[in-house]
Structures
1.
Amino acid sequence: MTFPISNETRHVKTLVTGHVVSDPERCIQCGICSYNCPIGIDVRYYAWLGQFVEDSYCLTCGECVERCPRGVLHFEKTELFTGGQK
Amino acid sequence: MTRHVIIGTGIAGYTAAETLRTMDPSVEIVLVSDDPYGFYSRPGLAYYLTGEIPEKQLFLFSKKGKLNLDVNHIKGQVTQIDPTSHTININTSGKVTYDRLLLATGASGVPLDVPGANLQGLVKLDDLQDTRKILSMIRNTKTAVVVGGGVVGIELVEGLVARGVKVHYLLRGDWFWSNVLGEIESGMVERPLAHNEVTLHHHEEIAEILGKRGKVTGVRTSTGKILQCEMVAVGIGVKARVDLAQGAGLKTERGIMVNEYLQTSASDVFAAGDAAQILDPFSGHSSIDNLWYPGRKQGRIAAFNMAGQKEMYKRTVATNVLLLAGVMTTIIGAIGSGRDEGQVSTMRGSSETWQQLPNTIASESGTDVSHLRLVVGEQKLLGALVMGDQKISRPLRDLINAQVDISPIRNQLLQPNEQFGQSVMDYWLKTKSGGQAR
């Protein structure tokens, strides 16, 4: 028997299996992302290095993604917990 | 030990120092700058002006990312370069010798050349000092007049509006940023501005700044209008700082001329960033990019060449992403309507290559809130402008950068009233996955 998946469950699943990825070519290092991170992760530093936000405290709340004025950040599915299985 | 001297602490100068240090922990690096604040996000000034970030946020690496570059940072102004004796003269500390020199001297705002330009109340947005000056004057400013129909001009408008100042925005052309944007695109920016009580004045320039007791009280426009204001904010373009290079006998035009290795006409002197006019060996043309990311890339390439690793600067398609009056806008490659007749400078946040519109067809599609314009060549896309919904901007950048053959969808892109965004997206997915594109 399968249960229908609610929108809320889908949303939580996205947060759990996603991470924030940067596009350094768009980034002007204004720091709005870091300034608005609720737990103080220096998101801009990851964008400077062109890396995804590899911080175990990241809530993937999407605040930085939403606030960035240049569209630098977006969510991508992570393979950290799934071992590459989608 | 090799001594690398870098003049300028902007993005190109800083990146060069970082790259040199990463390559060799023992090399001697001297950074010289007359900017008292060192390295910070210059494009971020717009968000400091609107109040979205505090001043300290402009400085990178405030937390764990702080790199110890171990550089000798000299605060002072370089007054002379002598490429023969490999020396520079600094007003605060005298002569310094170099083995390799990088000129990352940047660009500075073109001053407004009208009567009254010496009055107190005239501001610009070149650096942190300028931004501080504007903010210190805000409390006593009810109305401002802004001139400059490009990125800095609109940053000034938005910043002042966010601080509660009533703005008159003077535009020389038919519409905002008329040498890059089309009428519909500009309308998408002008409408929200007007909604925020910005008064737009087209075909207007400042003829004279009016004042009383040394302070700005208003302006007289080219058509004779009198606008009362306490502040005049200017963003009419920038000019590369070439004085030092000229004085040293280096080859200059609009910027400091460099080859594809970012080498000037003196073999041990390099230039990068807003000051560098870079030759494209394939087209024979040279141009200046007043953009952050190319500045960073040039700083890195210059460092490699200073260290003796021959590395060619490969110009990628000039791209910028901007929030224009709240409308997310991506500009990729050649999309402009040609050079502005009266333009004597370049624009910050802009690339000269955007204004090069080859003999091609432009195709448009859009709604009131989203707009897409493509510049379609014989076999490839040459430029694109995406406003509003940005889903298509990354695929377009990839297709334009990689010069992908778009022949299979070319006709579709040129159909009138065609909503071609989906066709582009589908084609990009096919080419990306390595599948045979139709």
2.
Amino acid sequence: MITREVCERVLRKAASSGADYAEIFAEHTVDHSIKMIADRVDNISDRIIAGAGIRLFKGLRSVAASTTDTTEQGLMRCAQRAADALGQGSAEISIELKERLFGDIHPIKTVPATVSNAEKIRVLKDGYFAAKEFSPEIKQVTGVLLDVDHGILVANSEGLYAEDRQIRTRISINAVAEHNGETQTGFYGPGRRMGMEMFDSEVDARAVGLKAAQQAVTMAAAGYCPAGVMPVAIGNGFGGVIFHEACGHSLEASSVAYGLSQFAGKLGTQIANPKVTAIDDGTIPNAWGSINIDDEGTPAQRKVLIEKGILKTYMVDKFNGRRMGMPSTGSARRQSYGYVTTSRMTNTFIAEGEDNNDDIIASMEYGLYAKEMGGGSVNPATGEFNFAVNEGYIVRNGKICEPVRGASLVGKGSDVIMNIDMVGKNLDLGTGMCGSSSGSIPTTVGQPLIRVSKITVGGR
Amino acid sequence: MDFKAFKQEAAKAAESLGIKEYELYYTSSEDTDISTFRHEINEFSSSVSGGVCFRCIVDGRMGYASTEELSEAEAQSVVRRAKENASVIENDDRQFLTEGGQKYREPESRKYKLPETEELIKKALEGDKKLYEADKQIIDGSAAGTGVTTVRTAIVNSKGLDLSYEASAAYFMADAVVSDGKEMSDAYKMVFGSYDELDIGAAVGEAVEKAKAMLGYDVAPTGSYPVVFAPEAMTSLLSAFSGIFNSENVQKGLSRLKGREGEKIAADCVSLIDDPFYPGNGVNIGFDAEGSPTETKNVIENGVLKTLLYNLKTANIAGVKTTGNAAKAGYAAPVEIRPFTFYLAAGSVSEEELFKNVGEGVYVTSLGGLHAGANAVSGDFSLQSAGFMIEGGVKTKAVKSFTVSGNFYELLKNITALSDTVKLPRPFGITAFGSPAVAVRGLTVAGK
């Protein structure tokens, strides 16, 4: 992408005003998506994202500059801009880059660019029409097949020069169902850090469409969820968004380093119910949120964040790690070169527990079974979060009863994580995009079926 | 290479591939952002980003391709890729490119003075100092931020269209974190405009006041109440549901407003206006993303749906004239539809009078989780909320950690009154949302 020699000259220029760390992140990304709506291929987005970002640290200060001009002159101008912003001076630092190969733990069998549009459209149509033909109540379907080939290069003043190529594929189907004048939607969108072989081994496009359609039809006939405080069982897979929001964001160094986290200063203490063990693991082969190296060039790690309720570690990037006196945990991520890297999650999940899934539902006299969750958000400082429930059912006398629509869950992370009092055995992962200061990045959430003893359910 | 040279290369490539109808859409943005931590500059970032989207009509189908790499090879590549992409598109709706030579209303020019980096740093540190001096409960983690943002867009096509605009502004942001020793609370306020006129004192005051108001909060009791939405909360709702007025969504069955033009869809007191020239927004623009002239229009007038928002394609399908609302969510995105400054018109009473009229209810000052808790198709919402109780006709104690649930289509009909001042919480952008405080009857609150 950019040669070692050019990187050396650019880093020297960037560090010339006294930085004690200098870094170049360059990327060349092919971002391709096909969208279907109204039974037709509606649009193809076909985009090259290319540019570079330079970061400098001096003590606890960070400077970042980015450019779309990756010629040597363009990079030198960007380096000068960064150096000027850091301060004056004419420091000479010697930089000798050594190329490192970290290896690829996520093999790709079919690089998306080598597959024709026609072949991709065939797969998308399988999913699309499975949803459309599921029921006459399905009035509209939107389908998207996305593939991304994200090539990155990281070089820094510590001598690192490394590249990685991150390929991802995702199919998402959104179905709209109408029942007696009521309109509801269903969604399913699995993805992997894989090429088109995802559809041979991992994901059945038709099953994706069916799941979205089934959810829409179920919800269109459902009544509103009642409001109030009640026990809630949250389904496996994407249900893990509850940990991601209620707890995960507050364990990122970008919040913790500034004291803006409900869990700052709590290492080694009990922050969660002893039933809860939570892990962030960027090394799961071909999982959606996996990486080989992070966007500062640190190899991906598996970290136990919480072990039986005790806080073990945070997710740390190099810059925030300085303030915390902690090394990077391979958690530095950015959407692209124009964003400033910070600590983020990869594949983050609650580990399997010892409760039988049947016992979890049977334990509830009255409550909500949130089978499929939607997205959510959190304020990491206070831990106040919210999630949408995409598919919910009332539980009465230990039995799953009628479906309910329009539910949301709100509360405080530090409370809810203490209230996870049953953890089941069917761990699964779910695909998501996570938005934060360094942009939108692919992350996996996950958990087995869990029970939260009480939580506020928003309904009507 | 620059956009001009890229354009020429692309034109050559188009000609050699026999492409007659094409357009190039270029965006470039420059942003500088500075923030403080404990009285020092903590982070500085200066980013330049942007790219070119090439789209062309081949056999009646529109194909797109984009790049951020402005080179000869990429100019040829986007043209070839766009043509290839067009060949598999099945959407056979009539596609349009705009002829050059139309008349456009010139927006009143707003030349904001942009500061040098040193001045920005000074202002950030000054803001940081003011924050810490503003209140004893301010704690570390509070931050001041300053920056400048500039956006340039150009549209040129094979039919002689050649349009461009540039908008820029400076901003100041106060992020106040307060603690009473037990609980933490935070709030921020951002102001945009000319560097000289950024009122940092007012921004700091507002952020601190908002953060402090939420200390020692209670949880709202579960029940059905009248709700008063503050402008910040109402604009969140309006932005989440603005897509229901998008004619493309209506035509594809993703909005319930199909066939409702000319019908009453809201209470009599409700008027909703789309204004590309709204004086309170730092970005005014005389043409849309297809190069059609923009115009101010009432979308809802005294409760009646007067028009949806159209671009050339959807207007053609509906047999009407475009409203000039073509928009792109980024240079590489397909042409969609968005409003400009989209705001609910002011009513005639003060906020205090709204509280008085409501008597007993909830005043919602902020809504969270809109990307998840608001379903733009069904209109259902169930959202994390914060605000105050309204008791005996006045605003009383702070309440948090509750949800407000309802349906946007029903909410429009259940608006009982609007206050007399429209606010734009983020007054800089091609799309911006505005609202006065709005009283709504009968929404479900879930709390304790």
3.
Amino acid sequence: MAHGHEHEVVIKDEKFVMTAKDKRVSMILMGGGLLLALIGILTNHSEHEMLMKRIWANLLADGYFFFIISICATAFIAIKAIANAGWHTSIKRIPEAMGTFLPFAAAVLIIVLIGGGSEVYHWMHHGITDPTSPNYDKVIAGKSWYLNQGFFWGRLIVFFAVWIFITRKFRKWSLQEDIEGGLSFFDKTYKTAAFFTFFFAFTFSMFSWDIMMSIDTHWFSTIFSIYNFATGWVSAITIMALTAIQLKKRGYLSIVNEDVIHDLGKMMFAFSIFWTYMWVAQMLLIWYANLPEEVTYYLDRTKNGWGFHFYLNLALNFIIPFFGLMTRTGKRNTWWLSFVGCILLFGHWNDVYLMTFAGAMKDHHGISHAPGWGLMEFGFLAMFVGGFIYVLLTSLSKANLYPTKHPYIMESALHDVGV
Amino acid sequence: MSMKNNNQKLILGIYDDPDKVLAATRNVRKAGFDIKDVYTPFPIHGIDKAMGIQRSRLGISAFLFAMTGLLTAVVMMVYMSWGDDWEINIGGKPNLHIPTYIPVTFELSILFTAFGMVATFFIVSKMAHGKNPTLMDIRQTDDRIVIAVNLHNTGDSDAINKIFQSNGALEVKERDLSI
């Protein structure tokens, strides 16, 4: 098959070198972001409690966003492994490197839960399940068999431990395969991926209820977890595409042909529609049924200044990728794909921002007013982006840029999507 | 497609290996001969590029069908709920309201696209019930791959035969196809 092609495929070790500029940019993002956030905090004149809520909500939204991106990168490896897919093999090191951010994001979430849990989460308020307390809430007391500190922390630690353990294993086996070769690592990944996919489907659902849905403790939605998965999944794939394009631009990853990038673009397009389907499905059923306990969630997110973020969601996460990535040219032009990808990532951050803040920023009357995007939001976001880039590039530089001895590496190098 | 001649002269190369077929197809095309089609019992990656096939316009037709479905749905729903001659109160929702339109618009767009694309595909491929397809060689339905080249000049036959043979053809034969 190889002969007769325009260019010969050579599989060889390829190492990414993180330049001083890469380090500088990520450090500036982190340091500058922290500075901006501090200025934002110091110049904020709202009352202390609301300011604290806003700081915790910022950390929670960013921590959650990058957590679901990292865990969806691992899910990407697992799903491709059990589907016996080969086309993505040449970019496989990118999701593997993304997974190394998982412990950092998990640490942020744990800090937020310990430090700001009682401010952000309605069910963690003091005396909420105590009938003698003035804070007593009958509905939340009825949910306390699931939402209590013991069970909550127990399952969260188990999820984090298993997810991080398997993520590290996937990467470790893949790196070991580069040295030893053979099929044993491929087989191990395949078997572990089968377990992980099964485990992940259940545990990610609970994780999204615990971290995101329980902010508005009275409210519930059965489609919420798949909607959150769609957010993480499409963002993770977008980051893979952006990273692959950037690496190619620097002369790395010549093995990744434009058909692989095209397929990543197809997935960005398809899962943007998938995300919209879930987003609309959740909203539409609640709108139809018009039950007071359900519609409050959307009233909180469309009134009091939140409406902008709500409709921005639709524009950035559906309309722009739908029309922008519909054509073949749109997916194969790397400049355009990166441009739409950046919009998409910002849009999904906006989605997580809205999910978190509208619930977490409630005042004594149970009403939240949109604080708008300020220095704090962009500062914390820049900090996380810088940290994520630093961890991603560091992990990429520690191994070959593509698995040289993976059994499907040739299939990926010769990947062809037709005319 | 030339319909003037009642007879179409073809030269067929019969293969059992997709890699050989890819190489042969590229070489026949490079030598400037007119490939009619490649008949294969299973899809071969890269054969479309090797044959120099133009990009399918099925995607454009899909978009047009989707827009037709979308327009049909919107026109239908607006017509039905316009004025108050057929007003149905469901859950106290307003009569003309965007969220109610989403599911029907979505479904009809997909329905029109799916049916439209299947119909287009059948028409373009000239497939119909009761129509006997013209097989180049009966074995193309089983385990052989056939490259069919239009023979415009009888003098080309030797050159094409040589390309076929040098790329590992099991058999080369000429055939008159009556249209």
